[in-house]
């Protein structure tokens, strides 16, 4: 037995209307309001520098859809300028000296160190998930996940992490898709950034249809070596020489620390042979990344969620395209530590700011948007002030740290090369550990932090007002040290504070 559906609907509507008229506001639990908390999409590039690479020209859609709709941080920094350490800080809002992750592998690096130190219990994902967010990711998690490819950290509802280093090649990689290993091949449709794009579109489409707010973390390895351009972009990717800035293949490195002096020749030869090819590939691979950003924004718009979604575009760390005879990252110099950062979303001003924004600030910013009280252990601070145009009392310095195992070590960047390329020559590109402090005027660095006793370390000081390309270390000589003794003493004091900081003391 049944009655007519239209009659049923009329009856339901009448009951709802009656309820609204009779019930007092706030007494109804039968019809819970939709969760109005904002959605958050974090788009991470890999090794995308902003010092030498013209990021926004290379990514015009990202410029139009995120930068021009929001705030660009012209002083965005990665204080732990290597993939795993940087990502650890993004996920937790903590410095490397607190996550215990200062490089990609070894006792102070890698996924296993991150997990074994207990960091996975308090990430951006667990905080949001515990607060009711639907969370998901696709792409690169942390270097070393290949050692436990079945691992799915807490806090993620939708997990699509690369579990081998073929991810960097763009093809032939395997993703752990919520517990199922899915192998991708070499067809154009398998191109990594496009696969991650499609997973982004699917997650956002599904999540937008549910009542819960969502957090999506997308981490293609573009433009990290050696990902090629997508097949459709190969023809238009013409050989392009990397920019020759004043510090490109720095002629006189006698002011630099010992490891750089010792390896300057082989480094310069490598850059001469590979740098422009690398740069060309990087620009080509950014095209698909740019299209992914557009696809994400299109999907947000199509699902009616764009106006209530925060979009973050940034990179884990920068990259040296021949500056100081360096390739890769890890260095305390501008090319390694500067990253692009643009954020758009509800209430955010349009424009630019030169407030120092750090990767440790992303987690507290996101938690703030979600209305989650900041845990005391978080070292970064919410960017809400600068995003609203208010930089009153904002930080004027920060510490940076790297914990690699030095030129002869097997830790560091070698661990993130694709299988078959981990030759001894590549280990030579690693560098010793360091800690540094960056103020608005100075960069002060202490080298060999983990390799040598304090009395045997080496130091650098650059006056960025006079020497923005960091060509002259002011304290290489005894005369220089005497002339800058007061400056060094003050920076050294502050460095000691910051390298031991935790929570609000950062
Ligand atoms: Ca990276
Ligand atoms: Ca020099």
From TrEMBL:
- Superkingdom, according to UniProt? Bacteria
Which positions fall inside the Sulfatase N-terminal domain?
Answer: 38-372
The signal sequence is: 1-30
Among its keywords, does the record have Glycoprotein? Answer: yes
Which InterPro entries does the entry link to? Alkaline_phosphatase_core_sf (IPR017850), GlcNAc_6-SO4ase (IPR012251), Sulfatase_CS (IPR024607), Sulfatase_N (IPR000917)
The answer to keyword Signal applying to this record is: yes
Which PROSITE patterns does the entry link to? SULFATASE_2 (PS00149)
Instruction: Give UniProt keywords alphabetically.
Output: Glycoprotein, Hydrolase, Signal
As for family, the record states:
Belongs to the sulfatase family.
Question: What protein name applies here?
Answer: Sulfatase
């Amino acid at each position: 037995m049944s009655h007519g559906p239209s009659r049923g609907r009329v009856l339901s509507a009448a009951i709802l209307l009656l309820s609204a008229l009779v019930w007092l506001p706030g007494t109804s639990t039968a019809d819970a309001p939709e969760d109005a908390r904002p959605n958050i999409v974090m788009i991470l590039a890999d090794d995308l520098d902003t010092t030498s690479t013209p990021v926004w020209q290379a990514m015009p859609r990202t410029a139009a859809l995120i930068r021009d709709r929001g705030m660009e941080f012209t002083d965005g920094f990665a204080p732990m300028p290597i993939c795993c350490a940087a990502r650890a800080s993004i996920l937790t809002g903590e410095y490397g000296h607190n996550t215990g992750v200062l490089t990609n592998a070894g006792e102070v690096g890698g996924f296993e160190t991150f997990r074994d130190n207990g960091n996975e219990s308090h990430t951006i994902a667990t905080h949001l998930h515990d607060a009711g967010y639907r969370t998901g990711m696709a792409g690169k998690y942390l270097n070393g996940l290949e050692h436990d490819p079945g691992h799915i950290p807490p806090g993620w509802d939708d997990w699509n992490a690369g579990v081998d280093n073929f991810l960097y090649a763009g093809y032939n990689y395997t993703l752990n898709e919520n517990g199922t290993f899915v192998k991708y091949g070499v067809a154009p449709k398998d191109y990594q950034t496009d696969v991650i794009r499609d997973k982004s579109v699917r997650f956002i489409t599904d999540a937008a249809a549910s009542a819960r707010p969502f957090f999506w973390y997308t981490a293609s390895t573009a433009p990290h070596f050696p990902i090629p351009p997508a097949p459709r972009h190969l023809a238009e990717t013409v050989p392009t020489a990397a920019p020759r800035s004043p510090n490109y293949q720095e002629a006189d490195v006698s002011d630099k620390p010992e490891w750089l002096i010792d390896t300057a020749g082989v480094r310069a030869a490598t850059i001469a042979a590979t740098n422009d090819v690398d740069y060309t590939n990087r620009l080509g691979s950014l095209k698909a990344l740019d299209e992914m950003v557009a696809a994400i924004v299109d999907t947000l718009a199509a699902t009616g969620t764009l106006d209530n979604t925060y979009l973050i575009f940034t990179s884990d760390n920068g990259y040296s395209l021949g500056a100081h005879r360096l390739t890769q990252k890890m260095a305390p110099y501008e090319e390694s530590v500067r990253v692009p950062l643009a954020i758009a979303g509800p209430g955010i001003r349009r424009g630019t700011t030169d407030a120092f924004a750090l990767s440790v600030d992303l987690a507290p910013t996101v938690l703030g948007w979600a209305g989650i009280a900041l845990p005391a252990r978080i070292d970064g601070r919410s960017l809400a002030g600068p995003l609203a145009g208010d930089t009153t009392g904002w930080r004027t310095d920060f510490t940076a740290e790297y914990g690699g195992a030095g030129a002869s070590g097997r830790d560091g960047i070698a661990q993130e090369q694709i299988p078959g390329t981990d030759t001894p020559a590549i280990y030579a590109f690693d560098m010793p550990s360091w800690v540094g402090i960056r103020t608005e005027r100075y960069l002060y660095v202490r080298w060999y932090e983990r390799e040598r006793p304090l009395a045997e370390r080496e130091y650098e000081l650059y006056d960025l007002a006079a020497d923005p390309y960091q060509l002259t270390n002011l304290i290489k000589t005894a005369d220089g040290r005497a002339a800058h003794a007061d400056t060094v003493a003050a920076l050294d004091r502050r460095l000691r504070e910051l390298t031991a900081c935790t929570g609000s003391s950062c």
